[in-house]
Amino acid sequence: MNCPPDHPTLLTMPSWGGPFPSVAILPLPAAEYELRQVQPGWFEVRERSSGSLIWSGLGPASVTVSQAPF
């Protein structure tokens, strides 16, 4: 569970169309995701329990807990 529990998990990744990053809300707590650099500049986000691929692409990327509730 995220702390505080009403703050969602965010996946932040580069945007293709501008200077600001893209952000996606993830359904599980942040600790349930693993961020790996699989090649120089290429990252994957996987669900820890199943190994399911959530996102793959050019980095940098991050999985964090939102600073504000949604």
Explain what this protein looks like in three dimensions.
With 70 residues, the chain is an all-beta fold. The chain has strands at residues 9-13, 22-26, 33-39, 42-47, 53-58, 62-65. The strands form two sheets. The chain has a three-stranded antiparallel β-sheet, with no helix packed on it. The chain is flat. The chain starts with 8 loop residues before the first strand and ends in a 5-residue tail after the last strand. The mean pLDDT is 94.
Number-wise, the strands total 6
**How many angstroms does the end-to-end distance come to?**
15 Å
Radius of gyration: 12 Å
Taking strands numbered 1, 2, ... along the chain, how are they ordered across the largest sheet? 2-1-6
What overall geometry do the principal axes of the alpha carbons give?
A: flat
Can you tell me the residue ranges where pLDDT is under 50 for at least 5 consecutive residues? none
Q: Give the overall average pLDDT.
A: 94
**Count of alpha/pi helices:** 0
Helix-and-strand structural type = mainly beta
Classify the helix fraction into a percent range. Answer: under 10%
Portion of residues in beta strands equals over 45%
The helix/strand order is: EEEEEE
Sheet with the most strands? 3 strands, antiparallel
